[in-house]
Amino acid sequence: MSMGRGLDSFFKDAKEVKDILETKDQETNQVSLKEIFPNKNQPRKVFDQEELEGLAASIKEHGVLQPLILRKTQDGYQIIAGERRYRAAKLAGLDKVPVLVKDISDQQADAISLIENLQREDLNPIEEAQALKAMMETHKLTQQDLADLIGKNRSSIANLLRLLNLEKEVQGYLAQGDLTFSHGKLLLKIKDPKKQVAKARDIIKKGQTILETEENLDNKKPKSQEEKDIFIRDVEEQLTRCLGTKVRLKTQGRVKKIQIDYYNNDDLERIMEQMMGEGHEGL
Residue ranges of the HTH cro/C1-type domain (predicted)? Predict the structure, then answer.
């Protein structure tokens, strides 16, 4: 698989990946764990220790039910798919694991790892953003290409990629689950690196919700739900759900306003599509 051939070739590669990952009815071999090593380009960097221990306990009782997929290199066997099983098998004290060895290139190995992980639902936001960025750079894809490929809208792709502009310490908090994706989007408003990190630490320390964080960033005191008219609250909640972004109804004297938050042009385009339909002329 050569690099930079565009979306059509990538769809072809994705089909090849599906065939490679299909392990049913294929003959497996046993390979020593000492000869196996992870792919350094694996998008998933954080492995939950409690989940690994649970899988290790299952492996002790039932063995490794699904073989690892490897490729032979000069250094041994590189993992193409199954690093979580590899780690759990080591915890379980196994010497060998069942494997399928595939003859593929470096580029194919990286593509398989990317596609397999993007199909999972347990990547943290930073891992997913890094995987998307790598996929775009390797295969010369646009954000819209990616959106079509993995079934996300373009604004979701853009918002994920923007998380990589956060300070490294803040990215670490998202990767560890101390902050959510929505917290990360809000923290992007803080351009000063030291203030951004300080605010992230403060959010974690105080256990702030998204609403509390947003109110605080706007230099407003958090309002209790009782302070708002129940009808206004209901309308705000309905509009927020409909548009997929924060909506507020405000009163300034006799003037009534609807405030709709957006974070970039892609996000604005998505909101316009929601309000005006896909046939609108766009920005």
Answer: 132-162
Whether residue 251 lies inside any domain: the answer is: yes
- Tell me the pLDDT band of 39, cut-offs 50, 70 and 90: confident
Q: Is the dihedral of CA 254, 255, 256, 259 positive or negative?
A: negative
In a domain, 80, yes or no: yes
Q: List active site positions.
A: 83
Choosing from 121, 149, 168, the residue where a domain stops is 121
Fill in the DSSP letter of residue 140.
T
Q: Which two tokens stand for residue 249?
A: 């109804």
Q: How far is CA 202 from the centre of its chain?
A: 24
Phi, psi of 56 (to 5 degrees): -60, -40
Count: domains in the chain: 2
- Rounded Cα distance between 96 and 264, Å, is 50
Residues 53-80, mean pLDDT to the nearest whole number: 88
Does 98 reside within a domain? Answer: yes
Tokens standing for 202? 């403060």
CA distance 183 to 3: 35
State the residue range of the domain holding 92: 6-121
Q: Where are the alpha helices (DSSP H) in 34-124?
A: 49-62, 83-91, 106-118
Q: Considering the entire predicted model, what is its pTM?
A: 0.53
Q: Of 156, 111, 119, 157, whose CA–CA distance to 135 is shortest?
A: 111
Class of residue 251 by CB neighbours under 10 A (exposed 0-12, middle 13-18, buried 19+): exposed
Tokens of 123: 């990547």
Chosen domain end from 98, 121, 144: 121
In 3D space, the residue among 104, 87, 2 whose CA is nearest the CA of residue 49 turns out to be 87
* 79-136 pLDDT, tens digit each: 888 888 999 999 999 999 999 888 877 666 766 766 666 655 567 889 888 888 887 8
Beta carbons within 10 angstroms of residue 81's beta carbon? 26
What is the residue type of 73?
A: T
